[in-house]
Amino acid sequence: MSEGIDWARFRVSLDELGFVGLGLNRPECVLSTASGDLYTSDWRGVVARTSRGGATTLFAGRHPTPALALRPNGIALRRSGSFLIAQLVWKRTPSPCPLPHWGRGLRRLGKAKPSLAGTG
């Protein structure tokens, strides 16, 4: 917990909020880095990076099962710079149960070079 902040009295006005990132598709998970970059899950690829300046880079991936599309619900940034990808798949059973899938093999789309290490 941050020292010096009275969380019981902490408030944010709607006037202080703004939009970041354009064209994101279902950004269900958002990660922020110390440098100000935002990483979001994105159904167009797997992960979208929005730089502090507002430019967006899309990283594509593939599902381990070729017939299924990779539609991430959550992402986790690893120390190595790679991502863990969570995808919930609802299998039709007597009672629905989520089956998580982890994706690998992200590749960059577009011209901007990401500041990530390899995905291994």
Compact description:
The chain is mostly beta strands. It has a single domain, classed as Thrombin, subunit H (Beta Barrel), CATH 2.40.10.
Name the strands of the widest sheet in spatial order: 1-2-3-4-8
CATH architecture: Beta Barrel
Euclidean distance between termini CA atoms = 33 Å
Number of strands: 8
User: Helix and strand string, N-terminal first?
Assistant: EEEEEEEE
Give the integer mean of the pLDDT values: 76
Poorly predicted runs: 96-120
Helix content: under 10%
**Continuous helix count:** 0
Binned strand content: 35-45%
The assigned structural class equals mainly beta
User: What's the CATH class label?
Assistant: Mainly Beta
Task: Count the domains.
Answer: 1
Radius of gyration: 17 Å
Q: Which fold name corresponds to the CATH topology?
A: Thrombin, subunit H
| Spatial shape | elongated
Characterize the main sheet: 5 strands, antiparallel
